[in-house]
């Protein structure tokens, strides 16, 4: 059985490494990228598809994490989405995709693993 694959988009190198390690330690396959544009390029070219996306909201240049999540959901409406941000949480209700989770930085790595696991467990079973 292939591992569940998560696309991780974070432009702060130290945080990217910490998040990637936490997800890998939890048994996920992780594809880590450092920008929204790289995340969207990977989503459009991904084979196999990503089961989940963990994305920062604000990158140094567009597109932002809101856009990354929308593209992921256009490709697969069941994609689990976790947003991570230090200051964009108030916008989540209006800009976030439905059935997603917002984690405000700083947070414990266990919260990240729990959030993505919860969303993956809530996905519709394959038909």
UniProtKB/TrEMBL annotation:
Keyword Phosphoprotein: yes
UniProt domain Response regulatory: residue ranges: 5-120
Modified residues (4-aspartylphosphate): 56
SUPFAM superfamilies attached to this UniProt entry: CheY-like
Secretion signal, residue range per the UniProt entry: none
Entry keyword set: Phosphoprotein
Pfam families in the record: Response_reg
InterPro entries attached to this UniProt entry: CheY-like_superfamily (IPR011006), Sig_transdc_resp-reg_receiver (IPR001789)
Keyword Phosphoprotein in annotation: yes
Name the UniProt record assigns to this protein: Transcriptional regulator
Taxonomy of the source species: Bacteria, Pseudomonadati, Pseudomonadota, Alphaproteobacteria, Hyphomicrobiales
